Amino acid sequence: MANWYEKVSSNISNLPDCIEYYEEQLIEARKEIPMHGSIEKSSSMLPAIVETRFAQLQEIEAILEHLNIQLRRIRAQTFRKFLEKYERALTSRDAGVYVDGESEVVGQTELINQFGLLRNQFLGVLKALEAKQFQINNIVKLRVAGLEDSEINIFYGNPNK
Known about the structure:
Elements: H1 4-10, H2 15-31, H3 39-85, H4 92-101, H5 103-144
Helix pairs in contact: 1-3, 2-5, 3-4, 3-5
């Protein structure tokens, strides 16, 4: 596994490759969610899958925090520029409004938003893996209770129709 945090924090131009890598990982992770085959095999593989995806989420969180730190740095520099070098005196509030409109600040905010979306998608995968574990646990309990040949009926839409 590539250490994307180190790559991105040392050179922000690695961010597009990082995003591409994690988008590919997201596709692979979504393939791990459905239940198929042996319950025992699914149950035994689940901890390793969760550990891998959680580690990836933690790296994404670290990169996102790095991007937020950079945004605060850019905002502070831009804020200082407006207070010190603007042709007329500005209040802190006015300077803050101008800072938010600067292209560098907007660009960094958009990067953070895009990477935040990626983080939220990984959170969704982890929630789905939790649900999978819950389902496996319930199926095992049904088997213990002697309901091995029970059927699951899936309703799409309103089950009362």
